[in-house]
Write a structure and sequence with these properties.
Layout: E1 6-9, E2 12-15, E3 19-28, E4 34-43, E5 46-55, H1 63-72, E6 81-87, H2 92-96, H3 120-131, E7 138-143, E8 149-157, H4 162-171, E9 175-178, H5 186-192, E10 197-203, H6 210-226, E11 241-243, E12 246-250, E13 255-259, E14 266-267, E15 272-277, E16 283-288, E17 293-299, E18 303-304, E19 309-315, H7 319-331, H8 333-343
Parallel strand pairs: 5-6, 5-7, 7-10, 8-9, 9-11
Antiparallel strand pairs: 1-2, 3-4, 4-6, 8-10, 8-17, 12-19, 13-15, 13-18, 14-17, 15-16, 17-19
Helix pairs in contact: 1-6, 4-6, 6-8
The structure holds zinc ion.
Length: 353
Amino acid sequence: MKDWKTQTWFGHDVDAGTHRNTELEITESYSGRNITIPIRVIRGVEPGPTVFVTGALHGDELNGTGAIRSLLANPEWGPVRGNVLAVPVLNILGFERHSRYLPDRRDLNRCFPGNASGSMATRMAKVIFDAIVLQSDYGIDLHTAAVRRTNYPNVRCDFKNQACKRLATAFGAGVVLDGRGPKGAFRREATAAGCPTIVVEGGEVWKVEPSVLECMTRGVVNVLKELDMMDGEPELPEHQVMLRQTKWVRAERGGFMDMHVSPGSTVVAGQPLATNSSLVHEEHNRLEAPFDGIVIGMSTLPAVQPGEPVIHLGKLSSPRRAKFVEKHTQADDMQRTTQEHLSTNIQVTEPMD
Ligand SMILES: [Zn+2]
């Protein structure tokens, strides 16, 4: 560990028990100016781990940015033990254009751990990886669903990695998904490099949604408590669902979808999820749940073509289990409120006989 009293972060000395707003140079613009990402380094009085918290790795996914900014709005906020590196916008070039991608159309979240002599994207990834990930002990990466979709807040991590699973459970979103992520993804490569990292997905692009923000800020604080960086116990839902298998239920026909479920709904196998009909309301077909499950994501755009994803379902083991999960989701204030908020964006109707 670096000497605790004074540490150098991104070229500045930061004393224990203080914070400093700083910047990391990641590339240069066409006009040769430095392009930097803003970072707040928050240092605890006492030694402890270093945790990075990042938002907008996809430049249009702003719920995490909103959550981090809301924590930073209180200048007193931070760990008692250890360091927090708060990065509200990781993909600053995408963010400047309200875009998921970099200007060269690459997905920064497939370019890690990066390459110092590679493409613009992999060079940027390399700078970020070396300066942030390799200096941290743990990571939390905040995302939303992709454009035209929404996600019921869920944490994703590799269940085989005990440290990741511990963070994911401590975050307390209520739904945890197994998987290490695709090759080149930030959290996968960070975890592989010895910095266990979880990813959190919640809500939509281009928004800061109050209930998602609430879930994310509580989750970050929960993880810091779990790591003994802050005092107190994590505030957790009574029960959390661990999902190992998920499936996108896709449209079979072109048409307009009437939705019968909303984010966070639990369903049993065969239950109608959405009805696809023509614009003048001639029914085409009905999408049904292929298994007992919970809706972790869905399309917000009701017009579909064949093959387009409509409902993202996490698999539960039985109808009894679905009932149990529903009961506990409804019993947790935050999960119930989130479900209510997210469903106000979607017209949900009863299926017609
Ligand atoms: Zn994302």
